[in-house]
Specification:
Blueprint lengths: L35 E6 L14 H15 L5 E7 L6 H4 L3 E9 L2 H9 L9 H11 L6 E7 L10 H10 L4 E8 L3 H14 L3 E4 L2 H16 L7 E2 L15 E7 L6 E7 L4 E8 L8 E10 L5 E11 L9 E6 L15 E10 L11 E10 L2 E3 L18 E3 L10 E2 L4 E8 L2 E9 L4 E8 L8 E8 L5 E9 L4 E3 L11 E2 L13 H5 L4 E9 L13 E11 L7 E2 L37 H4 L30 H21 L1
Parallel strand pairs: 1-2, 1-4, 4-5, 5-6, 7-8, 17-19, 18-20
Antiparallel strand pairs: 2-3, 8-15, 9-14, 10-13, 10-15, 11-12, 11-14, 16-28, 19-27, 20-26, 21-24, 21-25, 21-27, 22-23, 22-26
InterPro entries: CLCR, VWF_A, vWFA_dom_sf
Protein name: VWFA domain-containing protein
Pfam families: VWA
Length: 653
Amino acid sequence: MSSFKALLTATLLGALVTAAVPAAPARAADGQLAPVMMVLDASGSMKDPLPSGGKKIDVARTAVHDLVGRLPAGTQLGLETYGTHDLPKDAGCRDVTVLRPPSAVDAGAVDAAVDSIAPAGWTPIGLALQTAAKQLPSTGPRSIVIVTDGADTCAPPDPCQVARDLEAQGADLRAYTIGLDVDDATRSQLTCIAQATGGTYTDAPDAGSLNLALNRVTQSAIRNYQPTGTPITGGDSPESAPAVSPGQYLDTLRLDGKLKYYAIDVPAGNTLYVSRTPAFPGYSLSTFLGSTVKIIDPRGEDCAADFGGGGASRDSVNPKSLIWRGVAGDLPDLAPQGCTQPGRYVVGMAMANPINGSSAGAPVPDEIQFGLEPTATDPGPAAATRKVGFTEPSGGVVPVTGGGSFGTAATLPTSGHYGDVLQYGEEVFYRVHLSWGQGLAWRVDYGQADKRRTVNIEAKTFTPVRQQVDWDTSAYTGDGSQLPSAGGQHPDGAFATYPVEYRNRTASDGTLRGESLDGWYYLTVKLGYGIGGADQPGGGNVPVTLDVAVVGSPQAGPRYEGQAAGSATPAQAPTPVEVFGGMGAPADSAATPPSSASSATATTKLPVNVALTGTASKKSGGGTPWAVFVLAPVAVAGSVATVVFIRKARRSV
């Protein structure tokens, strides 16, 4: 993903930091695309060739040309550059030029502006970041995308401190950084800028990777891709694990297989939920990523481990959710052996990239959820036995703008037809609330494309703990297509859940077990690049329509220990019992295990809440050790996924 724009030449020295630009636009209405400022490096080193061939500035120009053809209508894009004059350092470090304030995309103007940029001078990234922020609205989601081949050569201001200052001001602003053939020092600085504001850093060692990275990053920025959670740094050993309460956290992981550890107290009878969602923008289709979650019980012994993985895609934000549910006391037959006693549990998490080692240096944001669910004194109705049926909603199509992540998913308030417009390479997120007793059935229609090509399309359903419970994929040629395909697992031609009941978790069917919590259910819709991984430049609007049916009336769910009489009835419960409670509250210091398991039973009940809301992410750091091996199973899973896609593609084309 990525972003950039237009040009104007400044006369020598005059207004090197251009101030005579129109005022930043007012905040966009909720649901609109976020405005983006693109900052393009034009320092002297951009004249140099890449090891793989081609001058850096030429490669950057080509990437921008490709990007602007892909951007959706309504995108507000601004363009800024620095280093376009050969000046002494004092003046050269003020050489920042706003070529275009954020405004509706004009591909011709942007292309002309980028083509006229001539690299010459210094690299004042800190000042460029300050200047770009001033061009954007003062409120609402907004983003800056920086492409550079080197670190700042002008500090002060230090660019990482500038990013921290912007975050400290409470600005809902994220900086996404892309390093074009950079060294370790530059990578570290660009990573700091991104992490301080909740954005991402992406390596781009050559022309092809820059093209992909710029498009993916920019699409994420305008869709307001927003890793969210309370910043936290996992410990490098179980003993140094920070203590957490239920909620959502944000950490960063390197793809080196080294575990980070977190600790949580599990009272007697409580169910512990653990979910993690790493984000991998800009990877190739051939990249396989391994994921590990390890559980250590109050005795200090390993009692559960979950290894998984799959192929990371360049045309998808590609959330990888791994859920582990252990039970301490309630329904012990569902818990892994040894994970049944109350006390302090330690959770270790790691990511590994066993195939493509070149990606191992880039840290990735990792949204981590911890949830506690108390004992159900009255579990409520029996487990569901049949999925809900799809009923065509009434009414016309309501326009929506899907988000770029779980945290920014567009809310679909009830049954209905919802219309959006996707660009090639996008995956967008929506959410629907299900109360106890309700189920969800939906389908998505891809309309006629204004630019035809053959690409992969995909749609998925996720539970409140981000467990994928339904999906389908096929090929799309621009003439219209529907997911899911009718027949097989989808006889009604619609994705469908079971009615949400607490007792579903006792079923033998894995999908039914996952649909045992009320709350937000997520729908994702993807429009890929090209069959077989071939990138096909150029934009194109593809209308999509989601037909959504919420089936059934809200019912009284389970009654939990300590819940007031009658509060399980929807009409009487002002605050439903949910399992994930928004932003979590990490402890200031490392966890200190209780002296015995019984001490956890005497502690105050931890909050019960599984909803995913909260403020934008902030900087979180950290490294860690402990090696994890996830090799053959990952590659096999990826191969199976590829075969499934090819088979569906042949069937559908």
